[in-house]
């Protein structure tokens, strides 16, 4: 695989599914590179899987910079996207621009923001300065306190309409791709058909232009975490526990 650029990803829409995975460090990034996965997201899900927190709200821009730099060291070809964490873009356009620049300087090739109409101006601002933006609609984890949890979105016709319109606004504002999280398959299918930009789904069915999963989830790092949409491709919870237990036993001998 050669270098995956944004135009390469955008041309894949309707032709070939895009594979995206989250990553947070150089060692796993090296393995992701070998897999052929076209895009890597340094997600603010690091709040959950790296920091052990119950949501993503505590993740800071400096933590994101640190992890983007680490992942950048481990990958060359996949297209690298970095999440703008909660608090890094809500206060003002200027603050959003400053923080997006920090992530680009750390090695990201695009930034991701959650929301709809409320981030439209920011998306236009960033893209006007050559910072590609990925939108994120549906289940948006930074809104956990508004929604009261991480349940699926788009359960009512009004909510489906709202998500559909948000996706269109995000595209119109200049976003290059959009993540659709935790919404009904039919809604994701309709949005995918209505937009020219690639849609990347997580818990949104099969009809999107690509799929993204949290690396530790797909590797089965936590046997107690089993959402219905998650296919596990390994059982690292078991593998790593057994390896460490064997090491422990050897040392004691
Ligand atoms: O933070 C994250 O990992 C994400 C993905 C789940 C899309 O936003």
Structure description:
- This protein is an alpha/beta fold and 253 residues long.
- Helix content is 43%, strand content 14%.
- It contains eleven helices and eight strands.
- It is globular.
- Bound molecules: 3-methyl-2-oxobutanoic acid.
- The site of 3-methyl-2-oxobutanoic acid has 11 residues, from strand 6.
Write the topology of this structure:
Blueprint: H1 6-12, E1 18-22, H2 26-35, E2 39-42, H3 46-49, H4 61-74, E3 79-83, H5 93-105, E4 110-112, H6 120-128, E5 133-138, H7 144-147, H8 157-173, E6 177-181, H9 185-194, E7 199-202, E8 210-213, H10 215-218, H11 236-252
Parallel strand pairs: 1-2, 1-8, 2-3, 3-4, 4-5, 5-6, 6-7, 7-8
Helix pairs in contact: 2-4, 5-6, 6-8, 8-9
Bound molecules: 3-methyl-2-oxobutanoic acid.
Key terms:
single chain, alpha/beta, TIM Barrel, 8-stranded parallel β-barrel, 11 helices, 8 strands, globular, binds 3-methyl-2-oxobutanoic acid
CATH homologous superfamily descriptor: Phosphoenolpyruvate-binding domains
Specify the helix fraction band: 40-55%
Give the CA-CA distance, first to last residue: 46 Å
CATH class: Alpha Beta
Largest sheet: 8 strands, parallel, barrel
Task: Quickly give the CATH architecture.
Answer: Alpha-Beta Barrel
**Ligands bound, unique:** 3-methyl-2-oxobutanoic acid
Q: Structural class of the helix and strand makeup? A: alpha/beta
Q: Gyration radius, to the nearest Å?
A: 18 Å
**What is the mean predicted local confidence, pLDDT?**
98
- CATH fold-type name: TIM Barrel
Tell me the total number of β-strands.
8
Strand order in space, largest sheet: 1-2-3-4-5-6-7-8
Could you state the order of secondary-structure elements as H and E? HEHEHHEHEHEHHEHEEHH
Shape by Cα distribution:
globular
Low-confidence regions: none
């Amino acid at each position: 695989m050669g270098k995956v650029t944004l135009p390469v990803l955008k041309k894949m829409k309707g032709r070939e599914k895009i594979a995206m995975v989250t990553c947070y460090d150089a060692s796993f990034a090296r393995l992701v590179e070998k897999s052929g996965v076209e895009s890597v997201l340094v997600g603010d899900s690091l709040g959950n899987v790296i920091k052990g927190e119950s949501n993503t709200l505590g993740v800071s821009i400096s933590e994101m910079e640190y992890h983007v730099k680490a992942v950048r060291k481990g990958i060359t070809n996949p297209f690298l996207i970095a999440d703008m964490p909660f608090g890094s873009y809500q206060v003002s356009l200027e603050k959003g621009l400053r923080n997006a620049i920090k992530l680009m300087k750390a090695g990201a090739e695009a930034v991701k923001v959650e929301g709809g109409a409320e981030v439209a101006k920011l998306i236009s601002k960033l893209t006007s300065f050559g910072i590609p933006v990925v939108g994120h609609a549906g289940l948006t984890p930074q809104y956990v306190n508004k929604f009261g949890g991480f349940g699926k979105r788009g359960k009512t016709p009004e909510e489906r309409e709202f998500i559909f319109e948000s996706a269109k606004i995000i595209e119109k504002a200049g976003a290059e791709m959009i993540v659709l999280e935790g919404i009904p398959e039919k809604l994701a299918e309709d949005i995918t058909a209505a937009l020219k930009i690639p849609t990347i789904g997580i818990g949104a069915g099969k009809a999107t232009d690509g799929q993204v999963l949290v690396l530790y989830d797909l590797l089965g790092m936590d046997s107690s975490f089993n959402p219905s949409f998650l296919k596990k491709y390994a059982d690292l919870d078991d593998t790593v526990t057994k390896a460490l237990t064997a090491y422990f036993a050897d040392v004691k001998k």
